[in-house]
Design brief:
homotetramer; alpha+beta; Thiol Ester Dehydrase, Chain A; six-stranded antiparallel β-sheet; 4 helices; 39% strand
């Protein structure tokens, strides 16, 4: 069901077309694209660090949702209208590195609903944030 | 168990002390404080609007998490170290208004864990986003 | 959009028609029916109690899901095919009473998706289990 | 941190000691034990099948929660008191087979909290149900 696979560059080019300026400014980088799966790098900017000295959870949830839109776009071969139905995030470990990796995987793509999973890991490979999500495919 | 109730002004003053600059810049306003409950207003800035013309879900999740920290601070009578364990958000309706109301309620405050619920509504009173969350109280 | 309101008796009569025998055997009782909302009583049978001496979480999740099907049936005025998309349950307090109350509320009923919330409380009124859920309406 | 690895037989023997009779009667079988990971088989009894002709979601949630207790017991090397804090389940595909496989994995085991993931698959290997969960370790 997957169309021609998008490249990291072609998926990267979608970011400024799809997302809100607040998300575009996160400077997520598409590193790898597989069918229904993307790997992004995310800089942990000083702006995301709260009083506890670690990355705020809000930035992690924002990255997770954004990565899943890109994984579904990769799966569909192009961006199509979609909306997040729900997103559940678990915070396993604090993030104190200056960069994280965000991997989003489509677990199932149905006609109107899609399910996915997102792992956010620190550079040492430790899983820091784990999310699961449901999307509605609108067209 | 609740100490002297915080006022909207005293809770508002905590925002720049607690949160990451990225969250402080959201300009959330504390409107009402009750024991274990806060009501915030949130401006839907152009920066949060994505290609679909509505507020991005990432901004809603960020507001939900932030509001719960404030509700727990109100419940505790002061800010104490805490961390989000998990946050589940459901997106019921798109948000196209230029402001939303965010109500966070502590459902249960135990010794080391607290549970809460967050409702984000448009000015016409319709529930747009509903979240539930678990926090770990660290001190 | 709601059709003629179902009564507790008419909704009770649906239970053996809709659910699996394993769920029918839970002996849930419909106490109250409002538009998009039902209140059930649930006996905490010895079969549901685990080594810790309290009701197992599995029984709470089963009751939550079942109650939401009934709330949606009440909302629709009749049973129609539907399926649970996701259900998130938080366990706030252990249940050691011999009965609990289960209240399920439809938060939003769209064309193809519905969202709901379920509270399970002990007889003293304390919230013990809180769940939120998304359903797909299939017809 | 893991003690001597439990065998499928030793973990199987824990089931009647730990769980409620309602869960013991599900006849889950421990097939494989790895550190922080277990694989179970679950018979899809006629009792779990609802009017739609497929396994009810309640049975899937019950199996997921049960499997995670066993995975944590395997991780700890023995059963210790624990309680489910939250469990989020997504239903990706209906289950019409007469058996499913349930794999539970500990994603992180901290001092007081543990996080896990559970996959329920049909015999053809297709992922049918996906759950994530947080547990509190009480001792």
């Amino acid at each position: 069901m997957t169309q021609a696979l998008m490249t990291p560059a072609s998926l990267q080019a979608k970011i400024p077309e799809i997302f809100a300026p607040w998300i575009i400014a996160m400077d997520l980088r598409v590193i790898e694209v597989l069918p229904g799966e993307v790997l992004l790098s995310m800089p942990v900017k000083a702006d995301y660090v709260h009083v506890g000295g670690v990355m705020c959870g809000q930035a992690a949830m924002a990255a997770a949702d954004t990565a899943m839109v890109l994984a579904l776009t990769a799966e569909l071969g192009e961006f199509k209208p979609m909306t997040t139905v729900q997103l559940q995030t678990s915070f396993l470990r604090p993030i104190s590195s200056d960069q994280v990796l965000v991997r989003a995987t489509v677990l199932r793509r149905g006609k109107s609903l899609a399910f996915g999973s997102i792992d956010i890991s620190s550079p040492d490979g430790k899983l820091a944030v784990q999310a699961t999500t449901t999307y509605a495919l609108l067209a």
